[in-house]
Amino acid sequence: MTSSSSSLVVLAAAFTLIVGCAHGNQTTDSTGVGGAGGSASDATTTSSAATTTTTSATTTTGAGGSGGGSTSSGGAVCGDGVVDAGEECDGAAPAGKSCIDCKLVDVTTPVINEIVYDPAGPDVGCFIEILGPPGLDLTGYTLDAINGSDGTSTTVATLSGHSIGAAGYFVVAQDSSVVVPAGAAKMIKATADLQNGPDSVQLKHGGSVVDALGYGSFAMGTFFKGEKFPAMNTSASLCRVPNGKDTGDNSVDFFVCAPTPGGANKLAP
């Protein structure tokens, strides 16, 4: 009896040890918050990303960094500047086209596509870039700046007599330090040095607003004249990513970018 009882105790202990080791290989879940996008309140935006890890695979979903791309395990990432399988474009687009959600769509009306208004160091090299149908006659169009503190409007440039370049871009540059590639059109106006914000810039035709961008933090009593919610402040550039994307919400469409006057937009490194 003593021998059999001892054997049962040893077997029970061994079974407990085996079961206990299995717990060291369990699945772990974690969630976090990051990036811009999602719900907005006076230019404050929040998005979330969830990460699930197992012993055999890792899958990530959610906002693809500041560029707003989406990721799936082994799948395409819209907004990373690389044309993956299943994408028609990712940032760059041919003349007359815009890259919207990595699909090519026709550009039918011009939009404010990128601005530099507060570069690091001296205020030189500021510009406002318009994306639109190649060769579009800009007669009747103006760019106006709206002061966020009192709502006053000032004409930055009258675009009559100019046309959008063959590549689909027209750049209003503060000075000659702004260089555009072949196929983009440019005019120089010192007034393209916009205020540092919170302010807005509007593209108008015949006095009616065609497109608008508000940037900075607008407090109570200030005047926001952009679309839905403002974009953030930056000393780099504010640009649409993917190139030309327009949802009607500045806080969703515009990101901090590396300046590319007259070319496809690129996220800041």
Quick structural overview:
The protein has a domain at 107-267.
Structural features, described:
This protein has a 7-stranded mixed sheet with strand order 12-11-8-7-15-16-17. Strands 1-2-3-4 form a 4-stranded antiparallel sheet, with no helix packed on it. It has a 4-stranded antiparallel sheet with strand order 10-9-13-14, with no helix packed on it. The protein is globular and about 50 Å long. It has 2 helices and 17 strands. It has a domain at 107-267. The protein is mainly beta and 269 residues long. β13 (199-205) and β14 (208-215) form a beta hairpin. It has helices at 2-22, 250-253; strands at 28-41, 44-53, 58-64, 69-70, 97-100, 103-106, 111-116, 127-131, 141-147, 153-158, 169-173, 185-188, 199-205, 208-215, 237-240, 254-258, 266-267.
Summarize the topology.
Layout: H1 2-22, E1 28-41, E2 44-53, E3 58-64, E4 69-70, E5 97-100, E6 103-106, E7 111-116, E8 127-131, E9 141-147, E10 153-158, E11 169-173, E12 185-188, E13 199-205, E14 208-215, E15 237-240, H2 250-253, E16 254-258, E17 266-267
